[in-house]
Amino acid sequence: MRHAARSMLAALLLAPALATGAWAGSDDVVVENAWSRASIGTSRPGAAYMEVRNAGEEAVTLTGLQSDLAMVSEIHRVTTDDRGVSSMAPAGAIVIAPGETVAIAPGVMHVMLMQLQRPMREGESFPLTLNFSDGGEVPVPVPVLGIAARGPEG
Amino acid sequence: MRTVRTVAWVLVGIAAFALVWLLLWADYRAAQVEDGSLGFQAVFELTDHQGMIRTQEDFAGRWMLVFFGFANCPDVCPTTLAEIAAVMDGLGEDAPMVQPLFISVDPERDTPAAMADFMQAFDAGIVGLTGTPEQTDRTGDSFHIYFEKVEQAAAPGGYTMSHSSQLFLFGPDGAYVKSWTYGTPAEDILADLKQKMSS
């Protein structure tokens, strides 16, 4: 009886932890220096930037993200070849090793915000959620800076 | 018979000489492009973001900072325009001697009005230029740049563009001076530019 009670208690404690993925590696993900540039209306895609740090002991895989600001949000990687031609393409899943930081920064990667549902206005911020392969979700508020911003400091 | 053979050998000799000469010339040209000594001129006829037809003549006597891109570009183009805005800011009272130009490689979507939104938002005196597909192709050839449509379902119109992302500098005589690769910090561009302008 005592054993059963203890199991029950353990299950009760575990259930929410499992439901939110609390035991998963994505719990140790820290997102810093998020920023984005103001958009001109909604007809053109926006971009957001941030640093995603894995402060945990095991690798995590960033599989995607979403925001109510855009119909489609994807991480795109920009590559520039030796002729100086830049192209962008979806980055796919991004594995972040323990202790590593992935910089989603201008010229490297950006969160491409397609089909904006409202303009991105300087001084506002919007919510973005990062999805990880272990089912974990990390919410990030992204401040909107001026259109000529060059980094998280403006 | 002997004459024919002699003539044939002479022709072979000429062909071999021509081939070697062509190879050396190609190398020489490539090296010139590399070190910027190839004196190519900025040549274009396009419509600016206020609807005016513009050619290189309109900017003669000033330095030109030329960048190619498209208004739907979310990362490379706004980043470069932000860098250019910082360079213009850093030039201070010398800013009127430099004209930044943003030339669209996406004539289908980039009407002068679409360019106007973009240029005015940066407020750095950048002139946006666009044209017909033919004018755009001719401009691309004249500047030795590359651009290409790439399908992307979620993008407006279903495509994005790959394009040369260097920032080009032309002198007051319209001759090519140098280029900076994408990602060069505004501070470095500014220092370089000031040095070129004072020499």
TrEMBL record, chain A:
Gene3D superfamilies: PCu(A)C copper chaperone. Keywords: Signal. Pfam families: PCuAC. Residues 1-24 form the signal peptide. This is Copper chaperone PCu(A)C.
From TrEMBL, chain B:
GO terms for molecular function: metal ion binding. The keyword Ubl conjugation does not apply. SUPFAM superfamilies: Thioredoxin-like. Keywords: Copper, Disulfide bond, Membrane, Metal-binding, Transmembrane, Transmembrane helix. The keyword Metal-binding applies. Cu cation binds at C73, C77, H163. Gene3D superfamilies: Glutaredoxin. It comes from the Bacteria. Residues 10-198 form the Thioredoxin domain. CDD domains: SCO. This is BsSco. It comes from Jannaschia rubra.
